[in-house]
Amino acid sequence: MPDDAERSIDVSALGPPEPLVLTLAAVEQLQAGEYLRMHHRMKPCLLYDELNRRGFRHDTRCASDGLCDVFIWRQDDAAAAAAAGRVTASLAPWTDA
Amino acid sequence: MRKRFVPYADDLPMRPSTALLSLEQTPPLAVPLRFFLTAPLFGVAAALLALWIGPEHMGSRWQPGVLAFTHLLTLGYLAMVMFGALFQLLPVLVGVRLRRPLPTARAIHLLLVLGTFLLVTAFLTDADGWFVAAAVMLALALGSFILVIGHALWNACSVHETVCAMKLSVTALGVTLLLGLLLVLAHVGSDLAPRDLLIDLHLAWGLLGWAGLLLIGVAYQVVPMFQITAEYAPHLRRWLPWAVVLLLITWSLSFLHLPALAWLPGLGLAMVFALFAMATLQLQRRRLRRLPDVTVDFWYLGLLCMLAAAGLWLLHQGWPQVLRLQQFHLWWGVLLLVGSGGAVISGMLYKIVPFLIWLHLNNRMQAAGQWQGKIPTMRQVIAERSARHHLYLHLAAVMLLFPGTVWPLLFYPALLVLAAAYAVQWWNLVGAARMYRDVLREAGVQD
């Protein structure tokens, strides 16, 4: 179940470059203890390098509707990582079809 | 209570990211753009050449004028765009960095331009020297392209179906090139190759193998990504490219050794491409964001022409008396080269070029420490209305070319409209490149 630590963004009906730009803008606004849950219709391959370079960790999971959920938190934020981990534990890891 | 970002809400709580996007995997803009900006000029040249030659010399696929016209479209337009697209997509999709992409692209582009002109001159003059020169130039152009792109593809870690389709497509390009070189040898008097049999093989491996497979592979990526659709079904993605190749091999062998049975794999090929077209139309019909989009309309036109080409082939196989052989060849060529290939490629260009302009502008401006608010959106780079003018001209050209190949009276307007369509496309793409330069100049950023 989502909690107060979760901020979410649904970019599943947007085309490039909007999912990338909006997600990168959203992660920069994360407060301590917060993680971002990005909902997309596909695995956002170009996003991961950008997150790594900016100092974010991520975990890609299969959402309950079959689409893709990417959980993102600052790499030095243990509380956010733990909060994201509580949600991702109930979701299957994303596998490329 | 969950906090939620809502994209495009009036009180959008976000500013665009101010950090650089990674360009590590993306080649310089000049790499793909030189191919994309050159291609429509060859389309204009093809139409003007046909107008100059006149309908009396454009009535059969065997006439030199028709051969020159088709090679201006296949090499000058289709291959030109496909080369640029592969140079661009490969590093991003496969994650392999091409070594020295700019000089490599410059050299291959120059060789392809010169080779195409030489081949057209050879068809029109029927002089052996021009044929040999064209063969050497095109062997260098296509051969180097196959080596560079093939090396990257076979060293890729990715197992995505797009990579598989691209590998098969580049292999088919190699087969097409070899068959073309054999045809030149046969034409200049060598006994090495039986000419007539090879022509249909050359055509099938070029159009269905190289162009068809690449179209399928790229569609796996760009249709879901840019047209906001679901993914193609995984089993379809996996077997479709292999089915095309296996059917092409079977068709080639039966065409050479058991011509009476060649219709069977031919039927399979028609069904496979019809299935691909219908699967894509079905995805597009259910796209998530149903806003007017000229690129989707270009795809509709291209896929419907692909279905019509498959239907025309079936009609010709089942009831050959319905349509004269010459007429079938010309209409089939119009459907595949202008209707299908030309339209789908135009649709892709109207997404890829604005995206690349936006991406490179974004990074150039931010690298220079400039706020990115002045960067145009993708829809501002090439206006929907301008692209739609091209679409209507392209559609009119396809519709006019059918009667135009039968009645000389309509031949001239058909080719004039085709020239206008490619000219508008060139103008739209050049406008995008000009916008890139102007934005940088206004911001005081060196290009």
Describe the structure.
The complex is a heterodimer of chains A (97) and B (447). By secondary structure, chain A is of the alpha+beta class. Chain A has a single domain, classed as TusA-like domain (Translation Initiation Factor IF3), CATH 3.30.110. Helices cover 32% and strands 26% of the residues of chain A. Chain A has 3 helices and 4 strands, in the order βαβαββα. Chain A has helices at residues 18-27, 45-54, 78-88, and strands at residues 6-10, 35-40, 56-62, 68-74. Chain A has a 4-stranded mixed β-sheet with strand order 1-2-4-3. In chain A, β1 (6-10), α1 (18-27) and β2 form a beta-alpha-beta unit. The longest helix of chain A has 11 residues, at 78-88. In chain A, 38% of the residues are buried. Chain B is mainly α and 447 residues long. Chain B is 76% helix and 1% strand. Chain B has helices at residues 30-53, 64-94, 101-125, 128-154, 161-187, 195-226, 234-257, 263-285, 294-318, 325-367, 378-381, 384-404, 408-442; one strand at residues 3-5. Classes of the chains: A alpha+beta (97), B mainly alpha (447). β1 of chain A pairs parallel with β1 (3-5) of chain B.
